[in-house]
Design goal:
Strand content: 25-35%
Number of domains: 1
Oligomer: single chain
CATH architecture: 2-Layer Sandwich
Strand order of the largest sheet: 1-2-4-3
Length: about 80
């Protein structure tokens, strides 16, 4: 039977660049391939910073959602590099 993936939530509210990306990177490093991170941010710069980080590190950007003053981004871990 296949293991279910887990989703970890990371609170990066009120943090400015580069801290949300660092928090995401730290969370991803603790997970196994297929697991996801849902990071909640308030810095609008994450809408470009996190997709760029995902592209460089070859992880999947699944969703960017704007909710009033928060940006919720979901990323799936694709490798252990």
């Amino acid at each position: 039977m296949a293991e279910q993936s887990q989703t970890v939530e990371v609170d990066a509210r009120r943090l400015l660049c580069p801290m949300p990306v660092i928090r995401l990177q730290d969370a991803i490093s603790e997970l196994t391939i297929g697991d996801m991170v849902k990071i909640t941010c308030t810095d609008p710069g994450v809408k470009s910073d996190i997709p760029a980080w995902c592209n460089i590190n070859k992880h999947s950007l699944l969703n960017i959602e704007d909710q009033q003053y928060e940006i919720i981004i979901t990323v799936r871990k694709e490798n252990d590099d």
